[in-house]
Structure formats: C-alpha cells, structure tokens
Amino acid sequence: MSLGSNTESYPAFAHIRLRENPGKNLNQVFMWEENSKMATVDELEQYYVLCPMSVKDSYLVETVRTFKEKNEKGSIMIFTDTCKNCQLLSMILNEVGFNNVALHAMIRQKERLAALARFKSNVARILIATDVASRGLDIPSVELVINHTIPNIPKDYIHRVGRTARAGRGGMAISLITPHDIKLLHAIEEAINTKLKKYTIQDKEVMKIFTQVSVTKREAEIKLDETDFYEKKMINKRKNRILEEKDLDEEEEEEKEKEKEKLKKRKKKVKTRWLIQSEMK
C-alpha cells in the first residue's frame, strides 16, 4: 500500500512512534503497510457449483432443495446482481414452494423493513437480495449464503459471505459459477487465499425441474411486465436523464418499444414450453 492510502491510521501510528522515540529525527519519513490479502473466517465452508448459464436458475432451486433436505429450518441468503433478477428469483422460488422475501432498491423502504423483519423472525427463512443487504444489516444467524451471480469484485464476495459464520458459529457459502465466471472465481480465491471446494448437485435432479423452472420464470417475467415494476424503473431512469439533460421523450419511446417486443417473445416462449410439457406428460 502506498504512503498515506490509509488516512486515519497514518497520523495515529506516527504520533505513537514519535512519542515513544522523542530522540528520533522528526524529518524521518514514517511508513506503514498493511497486509493486502483479504480474509474470510475459518468457520466458513466455501463451495462452488459449476453450471451452464441457461440452467443456472434450476441449479439454484436444486441447491436450495438439497440444503433444505438436511437443514429444514436453516436460514438462507441468496445474492444476485440486479433488482429485476432479485424479484424474478423471489417469484420463482415462491412458486415452486420455497417461501421467501426479497430485498432490493426498487422496493419501498417500508416494504424492505417488513421483509427484513419477516426474515429475522424466521417467518420466512429465505432472503433474496442485491448487494444492498451485503453489509450494514444486523442479521444474527444465517446458515447458508448462495451467490446466484458471482460479484465482479472480491471484496463484495467477502461482504456477502460475511453474512454467515458470524460470532464463532459455522456457516456455508455456495457460489453458482458459469464457464464465463472462471476468471472471477480465481480472482476471489487469490484474494481470500482459499480454494473453493466443489459442491455436488445431482444433474439428473436439475433436469427433472428444468422445464418447470423455465416456464415459471417466463410467467414471472410476464407478471412483472403487467405490474408497475418497469414503470418504477422508467421513473428512476427519467430522473437520471433529467440530470444528464438527455432527450427524454425519444428515449422513453424506444424503451417502450423494446419492452413490447420482449413481452411478445416471452409470451410465445411460455406457450411453447407449456406445449412441450403437455406432450411429455
């Protein structure tokens, strides 16, 4: 670390050193260096699940199911990258039988507090969140953290998995890794000086639920399109555009056309999935 990068520690340490050694030359440069390696606690078991991007949601459901088989009352935090994915995953898991609450920036503050209260009181034992919940929240007991989307920055990974294995208790973290995430995984392992172990998920079980999860996701996307979820997103974007002095009307029309096209494609895919599922029965 370069001199002065820790602005709080430098003056404090310098004062102590000068007070202990008054005879030292006051013009002598003081240097302090901290270990750049970031660490996770020894009580934390860290795993990865390698899976194709197209079936990652199915692997998530199966990972939750596998954990719940052995630890029915265990609390789980699932982290993902965007508000949309957070809401979709919440809807998917609720639909397939895993009661949960969601926590992200598109939810009003009052609803966030209510969701957090339900999780902390064990009314819902699964919390799905963006990085808004990775730090600063007082959640005393979480048995498992799942990274549905692995973060780009190792420090964010550490904050996420730091939600479990607290106060000397044990805990587990499982990260879903696609082939595109291998470099990110290696960067995290290097940063924490720990190799993640492979967590076994039965591929056959994943394929059994693949169609159900895929159809449920498409239906959830359509439901989001029919609510004011994207309307809130547009309001936030509008605020940003005003600040950036962009042409609002032109960009909003483009966004609306894009959403219409997406909705048509999703409805078509859902219909196709149901037809395939009916034929399989």
TrEMBL record:
Region (Disordered): 241-281
SUPFAM superfamilies, A to Z: P-loop containing nucleoside triphosphate hydrolases (SSF52540)
Domain called Helicase C-terminal: residue spans: 43-207
PANTHER family per UniProt: ATP-DEPENDENT RNA HELICASE RHLE-RELATED, RNA HELICASE
Stored InterPro entries: DEAD_box_RNA_helicase, Helicase_C-like, P-loop_NTPase
Record's protein name: Helicase C-terminal domain-containing protein
Ranges annotated as biased composition (Basic residues): 263-272
Record's keyword terms, sorted: ATP-binding, Helicase, Hydrolase, Nucleotide-binding
Compositionally biased residues, Acidic residues: 246-256
Record's keyword annotation contains Transport: no
